[in-house]
Amino acid sequence: MMSDRVLGGVGLALAVFYAWAATIIPEPFSSDAIGPDGFPMIIAAILGVSSIYFVLKPDPEPQWPSLNRLAEIGFALLVMFAYAQVLPVLGFVFATVIITAYLTWRLGARPLTAIFNGVGTSVGLFVLFELIFGLSLADGPLGF
Amino acid sequence: MDTFVSLYEGFAVALTWQNLLLALLGCFLGTMMGALPGLGPANGVAILIPLAFTFGLSAIAALILLTSVYYGAMYGGRISSILLNIPGDEPAMMTCLDGYPMAQAGRAGEALALSGVASFVGAFFATWGLVFLAPLLVQIALLFGPGEYFVLYTLAFATLGGIAATNQAKSAFAAALGIGIAMIGVDTQTGVQRFTFGEVHLYDGIDFLIAIVGLFALSEVFVFLEHRGGREEGKDEAKMKIGRVTPSWKVLRYCTPAMIRSTVLGFLAGVLPGAGASLGSFLAYSVEKQVSDPRSETFGKGDPRGVAAPEAGNNAASGGALVPMLALGVPGSGTTAVLLAVLLTLNIQPGPLLFQNNPDVVWGLIAALFIANFMLLALNIPMVGIFTRVLLVPTHILMPIVAMIAFIGIYSITGSTFELTMMVLFGALGWVLRKLDVPLVPIILGILLGNEMEVNLRRAMTISNGEWTTLFDSWLAIVLWTIAIVGFVLPIFLGKRVKKRMKEAEEEGPLSD
């Protein structure tokens, strides 16, 4: 119940924000019958109406994971963000060893298996994609 | 006759060594992805699109590779259904019902072989259906003006939830979200910036591949983190003993009527808007049960017909789903939406003009589907043992690799941290929305079709000088509106019941089709 109401609230805020953002689209020099903001306004309306429906008639509450599972997902999210940031700095091979080992470990492998999978995946994908297929993956200080 | 000439020319395009090799590779990868729980046709194809693109394959070669993956995944889904009672993807869930009991009775090899043949029959005849039906649909589509196209897109969104949708408001919300995202960037008609807030990275809009890979592939990693360990049980060597894998003629003949009925049903379910492969296999199984076993004496206890029917049905549906996707440019399911993304990445706009301007692409693709079918039959009967080994790879090894391939793919087309970050955000969003039962497919379709939809609306309005009635003033438009409204309203009354019956049969698969 509560989750759908929250979704409705967020959706409604998004619809209002979207409609506002549509009103500040600069006036083009030559315009057609409905202009660049007409269709987005319709979309904002659909977002808004369906969000109101969620608030009024919410579905049964989904089964949310326990707090530590939620934290687990949050940490994985952070690690992935960090990966996107450090990729150009560390280079593909090192960054990928770290993130793959982390994910493998958190998905339930023993630490040693995790490290093996990290190194294996990273080197394997590097050989496959950069050396064999010739994609350019992110280069680190050592050139890989 | 024209059709056969075109098809012949299609084979001339498809039958090169490189294309055959790509088809074989695609079939192999596809079967593997279909077999693995957590990787289905939609996310399997999704993570491969950016790679096929950056390898610099020609349009037809990339298409052959990725559609082979698509067909392969449909074949592969049955393997874990039969051996582990876990559907490899959602359309394969009906196969659990009789496939797993057969395996428990020591007839796993027989069930695998039979379902392989049934998959072949379904997919093969559905591809023939595609050959004949798609050109007919093209003839109708040529009558469409911009107004009709706008209504057609509306219809696609209205019916996307399908008959089993339980909450149409959530489908509408998801579609609006997707279309809203598509609006970001330069307005193609007037050249002004919309919703970019001065962020340079947003000027070209958000690449739909980032959204697809994030929503489909990365969100799966979060789902596995949430259920860590929960899905690993039951994987052991003992269950992988499958015995002899040759179908006996007796069983095949016994199941032939079931396969024929299911192929027809599945194909129709695939062509119609809002159905797709999951409903195809569900319908095929239910009807077969009504016809062959009305007192439920053998179905659910390992009846071979209960294995043949849903497999023929779901593979026929996946062929049928290609009809509206190719002829109208409007996909009816998640997997075909991903295939639409493939075409758009390659700068091919599907629809009636594709058949006129690039017949080599259309017919080459169809020829490739035929070739893929025979390869899959060959791969899936004698070599099914290889794919069952794949099932032994633990999830904690597999999912990180999937995530990394997703990162490599997006990095290879954008080369930027900003886009990687956005993909991660889409992954998290996908997980939350799946929790809240908001379907992801309309979001993807919205991002893919949003701009076309707007362009057609504005064109129609310009022609009519701003008269909104232009959207209702042809019989074609009125027919399309009627289907759209019925398709949107009907599930409100029937959805809960259909969903309940599907759920009773099996708990939900990893990703909706």
Q: Give the low-pLDDT segments of chain B.
A: 507-513
The number of helical runs of chain A is 5
Summing up helix and strand content along with how strands pair, one would put the structural category of chain A as mainly alpha
Question: Any idea what the radius of gyration of chain A is?
Answer: 23 Å
Order of helices and strands of chain A: HHHHH
Give, in order, the helices and strands of chain B. HHHHHHHHEEHHHHHHHHHHHHH
Largest interface pair = A-B, 72 and 68 residues
- CA-atom Rg of chain B in angstroms: 22 Å
For this structure, the quaternary state is heterodimer
Q: What do you see in this structure?
A:
- The complex is a heterodimer of chains A (144) and B (513).
- Chain A is mostly helical and 144 residues long.
- Chain B has 513 residues and is mostly helical.
- Chain B has one domain.
- Chain B is 72% helix and 1% strand.
- The C terminus of chain B is likely disordered.
Descriptive terms for the model:
heterodimer; A: 144 residues; mainly alpha; 5 helices; 73% helix; 0% strand; B: 513 residues; two-stranded antiparallel sheet; globular; disordered C terminus
Write a short abstract of this structure:
The complex is a heterodimer of chains A (144) and B (513). With 144 residues, chain A is mostly helical.
Write the topology of this structure.
The complex is a heterodimer of chains A (144) and B (513).
Chain A: H1 2-23, H2 35-56, H3 67-90, H4 92-106, H5 111-132
Helix pairs in contact in A: 1-2, 3-4, 4-5
Chain B: H1 2-14, H2 17-35, H3 41-54, H4 59-84, H5 93-104, H6 108-141, H7 146-160, H8 168-182, E1 185-186, E2 193-194, H9 208-226, H10 249-271, H11 276-292, H12 304-320, H13 322-328, H14 334-345, H15 352-357, H16 359-380, H17 384-390, H18 395-414, H19 417-435, H20 441-463, H21 475-505
Antiparallel strand pairs in B: 1-2
